[in-house]
Design brief:
Elements (H helix, E strand, L loop, with lengths): L2 E5 L13 E4 H4 L4 H13 L5 E7 L5 H14 L2 E11 L2 H10 L4 E5 L11 E7 L8 H11 L4 E5 L10 E6 L6 E7 L1 H12 L2 H9 L4 E4 L5 H12 L7 E2 L20 H7 L8 E5 L6 E5 L2 E3 L1 H10 L14 E4 L5 H9 L3 E4 L7 H5 L5 E4 L3 E4 L7 H15 L3 H12 L1 E12 L1 H12 L9 E2 L2 E8 L2 E2 L6 E2 L4 E5 L4 E6 L7 E11 L9 H4 L1 H11 L1 H5 L6 E2 L1
Parallel strand pairs: 3-4, 3-5, 4-9, 10-11, 10-12, 15-16, 15-17
Antiparallel strand pairs: 1-7, 2-6, 5-6, 8-9, 12-13, 13-14, 17-18, 19-26, 19-27, 20-21, 21-24, 22-23, 24-25, 25-26
Helix pairs in contact: 2-3, 2-5, 4-6, 6-8, 7-13, 10-11
Bound molecules: 1,6-di-O-phosphono-alpha-D-glucopyranose.
Length: about 550
């Protein structure tokens, strides 16, 4: 193998967002674009001898080509082995598991997550460190800095490698006596084994055999093969209980984002009145998000986290209890109420799974979750869509209650944190920035102001002080907190690729069980009006309605 040092010019836009670098496919196809980013990453990491790298993606357009480039660059940058998911496919949680199980140096996941795929869609790349979790900001900041001054990258002259056949291919290394190995692994079995070690598969199997009807929607994305192995082969579900389980490069032309808007096919099935099934779930492009539905019933991700925490001891892996919980700042405080009752700590972090890693490594938290349809535990260092689905099935199998009954009982015990998120997607960046600037300009005048039945207590831009490594992350979202504990959060998304996406998160606590049945949009109507009044969003962006409401 020869190493070729190739001159390159820097790009100025390779700043990783909430979760890696995400751009339109066409941007990634620019000359040396991927290579520059990968080299900046390798230079940041300082690769030790005998380092092993995991590589896989969600199967979207450009995945296979990018994997070949990364293999060739890994060989030229000191890695001695690369583990590839068969066919270049690895879900994000499976990649995290493989990194941990095989104690590798780290891994690259090629995905733009829930963003659309195909030639006109998005592509992405993120790096996970040796604990299996997303690279922390100190790494991604340095990668960005290096990408702005890069002048060359190193690549080897390897031929195209077979990434479809399980087994090893060896190449003579650049240095004599050294070999470089590409190992294609069956990550589906590894992941399914992990799930089987955590949950009560016998109880779930009995539930599924008892006439309980479910539908899992893989949205033409990466979890299809995992779902077939787990639900059909290991849990005895009928193949009818799966939909859209063949991964495709453009996700069947859909938007692999498991929410009420984009998972409309599943939503129709689950909100079909008397004909609705007992349980529905969906996951996203790279398999780390989940949406849970009951019969004609939507479970908000914030409530899902709280219910899982409250019922954790029903699951074999957590039967001895959980150490603590963590949620991102915009996620509702429902899980905090559970933590208080269990007498365990509850942490509030910025948006981004990377902020949970230190807490999990330090053993301070077991379950984590985000309002953005992510929940998981310390079994990996990523959010995990299928894990959440299995957790719910395990809880239902033990409690023998419907999803709605579980939620209603939960609210009766803890009260309900009524919650909704309104997204305004693809707004011109300047308009979005002017909305944020306008709210910030009222930081000193808003406290004490009365809006209908709400009085503002304080407003700030959220900062996080990591209790484990002492790092500080500023500007993590604007909070308008009201005296009764309700709140509005405004935040610009870090995962969009077109203009800016402005998110408004709304939360109000409702202790009165007579009002627990109310639709969140009805219960939060006054707060929605206040959010628009404070932000002047309609006036500044011309948008009269959100793109997505969850
Ligand atoms: C990513 C991160 C999550 C984050 C989400 C939303 O999810 O992994 O931790 O909550 O983005 O981020 P934003 O609000 O900035 O768009 P995913 O599923 O896209 O990788």
């Amino acid at each position: 193998m020869k190493i070729i040092v190739t001159p390159s010019q820097p790009y100025s836009d390779q700043k990783p967002g909430t979760s890696g670098l995400r751009k339109k496919v066409k941007i990634f196809q620019q000359e040396h674009y991927l290579e520059n980013f990968v080299q900046s990453l390798f230079d940041t990491l300082v690769v030790p001898n005998d380092a092993v790298l995991v590589v896989g993606g969600d199967g979207r357009y450009h995945n296979r080509q990018a994997i070949q480039t990364i293999i060739s660059m890994a060989a030229a940058n000191g890695f001695t082995r690369v583990l590839i998911g068969q066919g270049g496919i690895l879900s994000t949680p499976a990649a995290s598991h493989v990194i941990r199980k095989y104690k590798t140096f780290g891994g690259m996941v090629l995905s733009a997550s829930h963003n659309q795929g195909g030639i006109h869609g998005d592509f992405g790349i993120k790096y996970n460190i040796g604990n299996g979790g997303p690279a922390p900001e100190k790494i991604t900041d340095e990668v960005f800095a290096k990408s702005k001054v890069i002048a060359e990258y190193k690549i080897s002259d390897l031929p195209l490698v077979d990434i479809d056949t399980i087994g090893e291919t060896q190449f003579a290394g650049a240095v004599s006596d050294q070999t470089f190995t590409v190992q294609v692994i069956d990550a589906v079995q590894d992941y399914a084994d992990l799930m089987q070690s955590l949950f009560d598969f016998k109880a779930i199997r009995q539930l599924l055999a008892s006439g309980f009807e479910m539908k899992f929607d893989a949205m033409h994305a990466v979890t299809g093969p995992y779902a077939k192995e787990i639900f059909v082969n290991r849990l005895g579900a009928s193949t009818d209980s799966l939909m859209n389980c063949e991964p495709s490069e453009d996700f069947g032309g859909g938007h692999p984002d498991p929410n009420l808007t984009y998972a409309e096919e599943l939503v129709k099935i689950m909100f079909a009145g008397e004909n609705a099934l007992d349980f529905g779930a969906a996951s996203d492009g790279d398999g780390d998000r989940n949406m849970i539905l009951g019969q004609n019933f939507f479970v908000t991700p914030s409530d899902s986290l709280a219910v899982l925490a409250a019922n954790a001891t029903l699951v074999p892996a957590y039967k001895n209890g959980i150490a603590g919980v963590a949620r991102s700042m915009p996620t509702s405080g429902a899980v905090d109420r559970v933590a208080a009752k269990l007498n365990i700590p509850s942490f509030e972090t910025p948006t981004g799974w990377k902020f949970f890693g230190n807490l999990m490594d330090a053993g301070q938290v077991t379950l984590c979750g985000e309002e953005s349809f992510g929940t998981s535990s310390s079994h990996v260092r990523e959010k995990d869509g299928l894990w959440a689905v299995l957790f719910w099935l395990n809880v239902i199998a033990v409690k023998q209650m419907s999803v709605e009954a579980i939620l209603k009982a939960h609210w009766l015990e803890y009260g309900r944190n009524v919650y909704s998120r309104h997204d305004y997607e693809a707004i011109p960046t300047e308009a979005a920035n002017s909305v944020i600037a306008h709210i910030k300009s009222q930081f000193s005048s808003l406290p004490g102001q009365v809006f209908g039945s709400y009085t503002v207590k304080l407003c700030d831009d959220f900062s996080y002080h990591d209790p484990i490594d002492g790092s500080v992350s500023n500007n993590q979202g604007i909070r308008v907190l009201f005296t009764d504990g309700s709140r509005i959060v405004f935040r610009l998304s870090g995962t969009g690729t077109e203009g800016a996406t402005l998110r408004i998160y709304l939360e109000a606590y409702e202790p009165d069980s007579a009002k627990h049945h109310l639709d969140a949009q009805v219960a939060l109507a006054e707060m929605i009006r206040i959010a628009l009044q404070i932000s002047q969003l309609v006036e500044k962006t011309g948008r009269v309605a959100p793109t997505v409401i969850t």
